[in-house]
Specification:
Number of domains: 1
Structural class: alpha+beta
CATH topology: Nuclear Transport Factor 2, Chain: A
Organism: Chroogloeocystis siderophila 5.2 s.c.1
Number of strands: 6
Protein name: Nuclear transport factor 2
Strand order of the largest sheet: 2-1-6-5-4-3
Helix content: 25-40%
Largest sheet: 6 strands, mixed
InterPro entries: NTF2-like_dom_sf (IPR032710), SnoaL-like (IPR037401)
CATH class: Alpha Beta
């Protein structure tokens, strides 16, 4: 006999995300899997040659490289997207989302821009910090 509550066991670690203006499942899943620390699942949302442009990093290309980067850099991050817009393009969908990222040492306003292909895979994701120059300098200082 299988317990029916197996999915609710995951609900605490992978809570549902709601973003005003966004219903695209791939985007919602991106935030859900990142917040759950399931970086391999996040990487599978990307096209095989998909790219991630993160702050202070060079372009990260491909699912394996994206997963490796997230495992190294996204531990204990809490992403709180609040609102977004979907802009259909000729052969793609552009999605822009605004919100906040909280780490163990700071919180910062962030914008995410995604480009999805017709199969709803992420071909490009860009993360931009929306912070003052002083905030950005503080983020680059090594922890002491």
């Amino acid at each position: 006999m299988k317990p029916e509550s197996t999915s609710s066991a995951n609900d605490s670690s992978e809570r549902s995300i709601s973003i005003e203006g966004i219903t695209e499942p791939t985007i919602l899943r991106y935030f859900e899997t990142l917040n759950a620390g399931d970086f391999d699942a996040t990487a599978t949302l990307f096209a095989g040659d998909g790219t991630l442009k993160a702050p202070f990093e060079s372009l990260i290309i491909g699912r394996e490289a994206i997963a490796a980067y997230l495992h190294k850099e996204a531990q204990d991050m809490i992403l709180s997207p609040t609102q977004g817009v979907i802009e259909p393009q000729e052969d793609a969908i552009k999605v822009q989302v605004a919100g906040k990222v909280q780490t163990s040492w700071c919180g910062v306003n962030v914008s995410w821009t995604f480009v999805l292909d017709q199969q709803r895979k992420i071909v490009a994701a860009t993360v931009k910090l929306l912070a003052s120059p002083q905030d950005l300098l503080a983020m680059q200082r090594p922890n002491s």
